[in-house]
Amino acid sequence: xxxxxxxxxxxxxxxxxxxxxxxxxxxxxxxxxxxxxxxxxxxxxxxxxxxxxxxxxxxxxxxxxxxxxxxxxxxxxxxxxxxxxxxxxxxxxxxxxxxxxxxxxxxxxxxxxxxxxxxxxxxxxxxxxxxxxxxxxxxxxxxxxxxxxxxxxxxxxxxxxxxxxxxxxxxxxxxxxxxxxxxxxxxxxxxxxxxxxxxxxxxxxxxxxxxxxxxxxxxxxxxxxxxxxxxxxxxxxxxxxxxxxxxxxxxxxxxxxxxxxxxxxxxxxxxxxxxxxxxxxxxxxxxxxxxxxxxxxxxxxxxxxxxxxxxxxxxxxxxxxxxxxxxxxxxxxxxxxxxxxxxxxxxxxxxxxxxxxxx
Length: 359
Hints:
Blueprint: H1 13-18, H2 22-31, E1 38-43, H3 47-59, H4 68-82, E2 88-91, H5 97-103, E3 111-115, H6 134-139, E4 144-150, H7 156-176, E5 179-185, H8 197-214, E6 220-223, H9 234-247, E7 252-255, H10 261-274, E8 278-281, H11 283-286, H12 295-320, H13 324-327, H14 332-337
Parallel strand pairs: 1-2, 1-8, 2-3, 3-4, 4-5, 5-6, 6-7, 7-8
Helix pairs in contact: 4-12, 8-9, 10-12
């Protein structure tokens, strides 16, 4: 079922997934494991890769900008080593998506989620990567579309534009019948940084509000941790996570936001226990890869620490996460019964009633 703009608010969360169109349903199953849980490796970053590589070059005594080849090589190496321990990998069109296909770096059977948006500064209007589109992601065989939307709900004008942008992408994905995974990100206002008390107070409110606003125009929510893992007590963190789970009308996964791995591991445990359906994590897993000057040491890091981290995260997802099927109490028989005989062309009658051939 393709949900039209007029029907967005009419379709219940359960019906949205019970009657999910075949392209979206295939996408959802391809980014999930056999139990309906998501273990996604996020490698669509651009600026953070450049930042990491600049620092690496300085350690080598070279001060230069990363080249296309440098960034691509790093992404392909991480993809090749860690994708077998993922259900899907999120990559960008610039350095990783087609490159991973052509290089054979993406492990067989692993979903390919492709970033749609251009890399922009927080607080600026979102836009699609120039020359790119939902149609092209579908055409290249992408499993799902990922959209990042910077949100500050206190800024009404900016929020209105961001929601219009998200709504348009939602309609494009419905037209192309491809799964949409939308990420919200909070950001400090002018004169603030991430440690400013006012921002720390505003951030969880922004996450909850963004979750509510973006839910009706996406299939999967990619959400920030709605508390401070360093300063909030566990009771407060659990309460914030419970609020997110109640407000999310779609399955939600936790992003890592570059958090230190040990802290992210704790975030994952609490988020999965609260009702999250998985993770979409990147820098928390691989960021120390760029600490090693020698390429062999970088490879060793991925094959030891990197894989070990993926396994630990997967164990928590397996143990605690809520599958998207369980979230909406949908079993295979119900999904099958939701298919109407003329689903492919309303009003059509199956051909062959008067045919005498064996086929």
